[in-house]
Design a protein that fits this description.
The protein is mostly helical. Helix content is 81%, strand content 0%.
Length: 91
């Protein structure tokens, strides 16, 4: 356990930050799952807004330092590519 006053404060801040980051990570993962579910269900109407929501949540998480920039860029690119292929294949 922390014995210095500054170490105790740091421990409190870490607990709070951990909770915030976990919530952000959860939001991104939920948005990703919804998007993947829409892609697998061939739901073309919901696809654009789900992709936009996922991109928004993921980039917000990057700006807050929850995920690395390149990881989110790769995932968004792959999911956008899947969504685009699905949209063009249905036409």
């Amino acid at each position: 356990m922390a014995t210095h006053k500054s170490a105790e404060k740091r421990a409190r801040q870490t607990v709070k930050k951990n909770a915030v980051n976990s919530a952000r990570r959860s939001k991104v993962r939920t948005a990703e799952k919804k998007l993947l579910k829409a892609i697998s269900a061939l739901d073309l109407k919901a696809l654009p807004e789900l992709l936009k929501a996922y991109t928004s949540e993921a980039t917000r998480a990057v700006s807050k330092g929850v995920f690395k920039k390149q990881t989110v860029s790769r995932k968004v690119g792959r999911l956008a590519s899947k969504a685009h292929k699905l949209a063009t294949a249905s036409k």
